[in-house]
Structures are given as C-alpha cells and as structure tokens.
Amino acid sequence: MSAVPAEVIAILDIAGTKGVKRVRCKILEGKYKDKIVIRNVMGPIKVGDIVMIKEVAMEVAGVIE
Question: Which of these CATH numbers, 3.40.50.2300, 3.40.190.10, 1.10.3720.10, 2.40.50.140, describes 4-53?
Fold first, then answer.
C-alpha cells in the first residue's frame, strides 16, 4: 500500500523532548477518505500542511479488514 495524503487540521500537543508533535489529520484520498486520524509528526508543521501517511487502516476506528 502506498502513502496517502492527509491534511493537518489541528496540532494537539508536543510529545517528548525532540519536537515530536501529535496532530489530527483528515485523509484526502483513497478508501478512507474524510476519516480523521492522529499521528506523530517530527519537524516544523502547521495547520493546513499536507502529510503523507503510510498506515491508515490501523488508525481508523471501527474498521475491520
């Protein structure tokens, strides 16, 4: 499975001392389009940025494959 683009809709908090941020993202394409997932992101990030997510299915609540 290839990476899927997701838009950052909220920055929740900073997790740890290395600048890792927990962000809430909305999936933009594919089977799980419009689902919301929470991901850890390292580096500079702001609301509206697009991140590429490798594993989507394991984060979407209520989905059994």
Answer: 2.40.50.140
End-to-end Cα separation, the chain, in angstroms: 14
* β-pair partners for 52: 5
Contact assessment for residue 27 and residue 34, using Cβ atoms and an 8 Å cutoff: yes
Three-class SS state of 16: coil
pLDDT tens-place values along the chain, 65 residues long: 688 999 999 999 887 778 899 999 999 998 889 999 998 899 899 999 999 988 776 655 555 44
